[in-house]
Structure formats: C-alpha cells, structure tokens
What does this fold into?
Amino acid sequence: MNKGELVDAIAEKTGVTKKQVDQVLSSVIETIIEAVASGDKVTLVGFGSFESRERKAREGRNPKTNEKMEIPATRVPAFSAGKQFREKVAPPKE
It folds into this structure.
C-alpha cells in the first residue's frame, strides 16, 4: 500500500475528504520526522515507536575490491512495533 492508497482507505473509513486526509497524514509524517531528527522519541501506543539510534563505527569491505574500509559512526532512524501491532501481524501461538 502506498501513500495514495492509504489516503483513500482513511478517507473511506472516516468520511473525510481525501484532500484533508492527505494534509493531515503529510503533517503527521513531517512532525514525526522532525521530532526524531531532533533526538526525540515518538510513541504511538499500540502502533509503535519512532526514534533515532546511534550506529557504532565498524569495519567493512568494499565489495568490488574486497579492500577493508572503516564505516563511520552515524545516527539512523528506527521503528519498533508496539504489542498490539505485533500481535495483529503475528498472533501468538497457543
């Protein structure tokens, strides 16, 4: 499902216009990106958490030359699914 299809599905479920849904969804995504980029953690209970994580420097290899190289430390975005989301996707086995 892409963003357009998500907008269509939300508009259908809520009865709100697609234009309004698109504006709200775009604002939500932009706000989450800005918060995570500034170092904040965004938690949506039942859905999951967005945060930035530090990735340590490590040694890697150039796939073309097989030469060793140092990969610098960096910050990366991360998402952790919430319990309700995980259980909906993969129900616990009995």
In short: The first strand starts at residue 42 and ends at 44. The beta strands are 42-44, 48-55, 58-61, 68-71, 74-81. The CA atoms of residues 33 and 53 lie 14 Å apart. The chain has a mean pLDDT of 95.
